[in-house]
Amino acid sequence: MDKSEKKFEWHIFNNDYEHYVQLAVNSNDEVEGFFASCYFLRKENMLVVSKFGIGAPTTISLFEELIAYGIKNFISIGNAGGISPDVNIGDIVVCEKAIRDEGVSYHYVPAAKYAHSSSNMTKVLKEVLVNENVDFHSGVSWTTDAFFRETIEEVKHYQQEGVLTVEMEASALFAVADYRDVNISVLFTISDSLADLKWEPKWHSPEVKYSYEKLFKASVETINKIESEEIKEIYNKSQLS
C-alpha cells in the first residue's frame, strides 16, 4: 500500500484488553515488523496497534516509527486514573491538554506546563461522541513517568487545578505530534481512581470494558471524518488551481 494512502487509528490497550483488539479486527490481517501487536482493518483502511507497553519512552518510540511510515492521523485510546471527584469508574474523558510531568516532551518542544491535543481532530472527536449520545468529560490530564510517586500532596494540588486524570503518555504524544506536524487526539476511560486520596483499582469492571467499546467506535468514526475532510480540501484546492 502506498504511504499516501495510509490512515491510522492508534489504540492503546493494556495487555488485559488485547481481546478487544481481536474482536475489533476479526479476520483482518496482522502486520508484522513492530514491537507491538498491529492489525490492518481492510474495510476501514486503518491500523490498530496494541500491546506495546506503557509510558512515554516506549510509546513515543513506536509513534516515531509510524510517523516515519507517512501516517498523519492518530487517536490514542486507553485507561487513566481519575483525580477529580467529578469523574467515576468507566467515565470517558477527552484530553484537551496534558501537564508535562514526563521527560520525553522536553526533547521535542520548548519547556512549558502543558502540551495540547490537535484542535481540529479533538473537535471532530467530541462532535462524534455527542452524535453517538456518549456522555464524556473534557479537560486536563497529568502525565507522569512515576506512578509510584503520585503522592497525596501532588494529587491534592492537581485537584485544586481542576485536573481530571493521571496517566503516562498524553503530554509526550501531544508534543511529538506538534513537532512532527501530525494530528493526534487522546481519549481515556477511567479505570482506577485517586480522587479520595487512596487508590481504587477497577480495571476489570464492566463499566470500563463497556467504555472501551465506545472509545473504539468513536475513534473509527473520527478518523473517517478527518480523512473525508482532508480529501475534500485536496479536491477543492485542485479545482482552484
Secondary structure layout plus pairing:
Layout: H1 18-25, E1 29-31, E2 37-41, E3 46-50, H2 56-68, E4 73-82, E5 92-101, E6 114-116, H3 119-131, E7 137-144, H4 152-160, E8 165-167, H5 170-180, E9 183-193, E10 200-201, H6 206-240
Parallel strand pairs: 4-9, 5-7, 7-8
Antiparallel strand pairs: 1-2, 2-3, 4-8, 5-6, 5-9, 9-10
Order of SSEs: HEEEHEEEHEHEHEEH
Distance between the termini: 28 Å
Task: List low-pLDDT spans.
Answer: 1-17
Q: Tally of extended strands? A: 10
User: CATH homologous superfamily?
Assistant: Nucleoside phosphorylase domain
What does the radius of gyration come to? 17 Å
Largest sheet: 5 strands, mixed, barrel
Name the beta content range: 15-25%
Whole-number tally of structural domains: 1
What is the approximate shape? globular
Q: Going across the major beta sheet, what is the strand order?
A: 4-8-7-5-9
Which CATH class applies here?
A: Alpha Beta
CATH topology: Rossmann fold
Count the DSSP helices. Answer: 6
What CATH architecture would you give?
3-Layer(aba) Sandwich
Return the structural class.
Answer: alpha/beta
Helicity range of the residues? 25-40%
State mean pLDDT (0 to 100 scale): 84
